[in-house]
Amino acid sequence: xxxxxxxxxxxxxxxxxxxxxxxxxxxxxxAERDESAVxxAERDESAxxxxxRLGRGVNLGNxxxxxxxxxxxxxxxxxDVRLVKRLGFDSVRLPVRWSSHxxxxxxxxxxxxxxxxxxxxxxxxxxxxxxVIVDDHHHxxxxxxxxxxxxxLLALWDxxxxxxxxxxxxxxxxxxxxxxxxxxxxxxxxxxAEALATIRRHDPDRxxxxxxxxxxxxxxxxxxxxxxxxxxxxVSVHYYEPFEFTHQGADWAGRDxxxxxxxxxxxxxxxxxxxxxxxxxxxGYARRTGRPVHLGEFGAYSKADYASRVRWTxxxxxxxESRGISWAYWEFASGFGIYDPETGEIRDELAxxxxxxxx
Length: 359
Ligand code: BGC
Known about the structure:
The chain has 359 residues and is an alpha/beta fold. It has helices at residues 8-13, 45-54, 78-87, 112-127, 140-144, 146-164, 185-202, 213-216, 243-246, 269-289, 306-321, 348-355, and strands spanning 56-59, 91-94, 131-135, 171-174, 208-210, 233-239, 293-298, 326-329, 339-340, 345-346.
């Protein structure tokens, strides 16, 4: 079982993520109406092409970002990667908890055995013709104390960018999954600029994803500051609204999560309008800044009723695709998954909600 408690600390203090300061509250008017933080820029065509190349993707989650791969009941296999390709996905997002496998300061050297395992998985993806995003996931020390521990992130990217510089352009980097906590917008904007500079010292041409503070929420795009003139960047957002629907019964989503059980998503006009509002903000951001947006995570947990999950998943996917935004579903083979690795079964309706029309 997934014993992730990463959101718990926030959620225990703040029972509904949506209803408190971490959600789209009064401070978080849609960016469409707040252009103050946005620097108009020339459209970065190569970044838009690279974002389009990501197409329809899936997170190979709950494996390499567990404390140790297998701790959460799933290990990635060669056959799984082949299946991802065969189902019709174009890309994979590979969440990785590097921080569990880094040595002491000042080098914070990534343990060779773990790095080799990540290489193996990402090379399987590339061999299958899947683009692959490798991220830094659950790096809690940086979230807790960015001032003291930001150097851990820089040391990590110094190693990764040197390691992967010769991989094909279908390998993408994502600087950090879901900044939150003490890694607030101000701290994050500073640290991300340093991380990008570190990456560019080794690997100037790589496409790099970077998302806003507060869990990569769309509403926080207006607070994201990227180095002026920086190119080949793709802006990553995550979407799990309504949170009471997508995270009902999730043991890492705080003490109220069980009381949300039974929340349906019917596809009513109001529910669909909420999707339009969110993704209009994302598309508007891309238009104004000249930078593409990618939806790096969205999904509804298996404790929600299946028909609602299928409806919501299709609606989100259609909402983003109609705006030219590529995406990666959360996730392949665990609690949100479209595939059950124990029985070998595909959850057909969920897979169809994501992949219909795929060649
Ligand atoms: C986290 C996962 C979690 C998912 C949905 C991801 O960003 O890394 O552990 O299951 O969001 O809550």
